[in-house]
Amino acid sequence: MFADKMILRIPGPTPIPARVQSAMNQPMIGHRSGKFSALFARTAERLKPYFGTKQDVYILAGSGTSALEMGVVNTLQPGDEAAILVSGAFGERFAKICERYGVIAHRLEVPWGEAITPELVEAFLQKKPQVKAVFATYCETSTGVENPIADLAKAIRTHSDALFIVDAVSNLGAVPCEMDAWGVDIVVTGSQKAFMLPTGLAFLAASERAWQVIEQNKSLAFYLDLKAYRKSLAEQTTPYTPAVSLIFGLAEVLDMLEEEGLPAIVKRHELMRDMTRAAMKALNIKLMAEDKYASTTVTSCDPAGVFHAEALRKMLTQQFNITIAGGQQHLKGKIFRIGHMGYCEPLDVLQVISAIEMSLHQIGAPVELGAGVKAAQEVLIAHV
Amino acid sequence: MFADKMILRIPGPTPIPARVQSAMNQPMIGHRSGKFSALFARTAERLKPYFGTKQDVYILAGSGTSALEMGVVNTLQPGDEAAILVSGAFGERFAKICERYGVIAHRLEVPWGEAITPELVEAFLQKKPQVKAVFATYCETSTGVENPIADLAKAIRTHSDALFIVDAVSNLGAVPCEMDAWGVDIVVTGSQKAFMLPTGLAFLAASERAWQVIEQNKSLAFYLDLKAYRKSLAEQTTPYTPAVSLIFGLAEVLDMLEEEGLPAIVKRHELMRDMTRAAMKALNIKLMAEDKYASTTVTSCDPAGVFHAEALRKMLTQQFNITIAGGQQHLKGKIFRIGHMGYCEPLDVLQVISAIEMSLHQIGAPVELGAGVKAAQEVLIAHV
């Protein structure tokens, strides 16, 4: 095996394209220079289509969690009530952040592997009209479930004045997102998923409705104070030191995304999802999410009683230098998750499926070699 | 001019060595993988000597400001009183962060260009024994003043039980820092200064005394909750997604720093400071800081009444592709600041001085060509 041919098929970080690596290697420039300001403002502008918004998009040096926190500390005050739609580990994170700041977090939970339905939210909001914000996860990375954000937004808008705040960290850029049209108030995402960058940046956009609340509130935190970012972006800059080399890379990523075009990018990801799911079904491996709510970017599989997920993962790494993800929290060691997003194409999906088949054979699990690949090929051929 | 030969002589970000760029180009790996965990834990361990501590050093994806905020939200509660030693823009930032969280911030201010003295702090602490933390800036980047941290620590330890929290963003790695021996409780710094990395990482270490307070406090923020970082580092990981490519770069930086050795690094920076100051004196350009409190990493000059700082900066960029910094806040447009840290050596200082001389000539300012270079050469020759 070539050590530098390591194949990363986890739900983020995702592989970095060579041209993005090169772009990040440009000589460092001052972040208060005119050259950087122009690049920064243009780059922020170019992010808007992926959010489906005319609003400004803010770029933060930090992880996805820092952006989730940004969504909380600017819109709520201690004692406010919020509804958290929890379908896995990342929904729960929103609840924990709210509680840290004294926000009353009402968790609307579904079992891991299921999606949040509009009915669940409607019933709750009718009982609790005082709720000021509803938090949801677009792609629940821990389970491979894509929550129906457009439908949830419609239900919330119909029954409440609450802000609707969405974590789209693990799928924005790979899925449709029409923040303005759907009536979503805040969308946050990260750099290391569909945006094909290293970890270290997060992006956030807020609606006019959200800005009315944000402008009235004193932000509960300092580094994450959105008003400071708005004031600075109007001057083509950032309130605190931006991650310059990652911004260089982001500009190159946006070139790549624009060359392919968002509709084609979404179709490519849907195709990779469908290929992966067809393969797993052909291999008789249980999928955690129903087809209807299946994530476009990550597929979770539950091999309970048939083989050990960790044995498969270990064999994939040892024999083929391929990394897939395991489970999180109570699913740790029990499931495996295949990332298919970012710098990844249908042939890469065939590759990981073939390696999974061979690894299953090696660990003594029941497998018909080639069956998963064939099912995925059939999906791909029907598409091209 | 070659566009890629742009010369960055600002007090951060600083130029990135080619071998560090290459290290950051390694293929992305999962941040929850064993390979990354081992690298991360080893890299955090290797940061300790630059802090002068046996305590763990925490690595954060964020700007220096996020690390300043980390120093506040883990040690104080709303209503607590803190003393902020303000000698410029970055001292004031600590005060603003405190106030955001309801901490009562007592500002002990000196005019910009002067240093904080132990006497000032002693007198205040005797009047206000209830102060729970004292915040200081090691290098006040906005003025080029290095505050006497060891002496301040001694004064605080003698007269108070307050924690002593130090912003060393713009000089750690280039100056002596003996956190444990001096009795400093928290030191924070950033990646883009003496550590020769792109912007995007911050580092923090805390004393046993600080940990006793931190463990008792509920952190006022979530992403910046130090207890979560401590728990994760014990498991060789981070609570939230780390900036993987910057950690690759940091490991390479630490190789470079260890090859040169900290004593030699400190001497190199002191030499570059002395060369720069000798040159400015020879050119009759007023230095903002006294020799005794002159920053090792950035020199601030005040050309009031002789020439316009911004005209010099513009000419340097246009003719020589060299960037130096201007003033901040009320000094914007009035002063200029020369960075001499990180991937910068004495010959680079001679280069920037010669370009400053020629630019002064071009803008019609009084200058004897070569006079500054000669003075700096004499300092260098006496040293080698």
UniProtKB/TrEMBL annotation, chains A, B:
UniProt cross-references to SUPFAM superfamilies, sorted A to Z: PLP-dependent transferases (SSF53383)
Keyword Transferase found: yes
Superkingdom field: Bacteria
GO molecular function per UniProt: alanine-glyoxylate transaminase activity; L-serine-pyruvate transaminase activity
One Pfam family from the record: Aminotran_5
Amino acids binding substrate: 337
Keywords from the UniProt entry: Aminotransferase, Pyridoxal phosphate, Transferase
GO biological process: glycine biosynthetic process, by transamination of glyoxylate
InterPro entries attached to this UniProt entry: Aminotrans_V_dom, Aminotrans_V_PyrdxlP_BS, PyrdxlP-dep_Trfase, PyrdxlP-dep_Trfase_major, PyrdxlP-dep_Trfase_small, SP_NH2Trfase/AEP_transaminase
N6-(pyridoxal phosphate)lysine sites (modified residues): 193
Cofactor(s) needed for function: pyridoxal 5'-phosphate
Family to which the UniProt record says this protein belongs: Belongs to the class-V pyridoxal-phosphate-dependent aminotransferase family.
Protein name: Aminotransferase
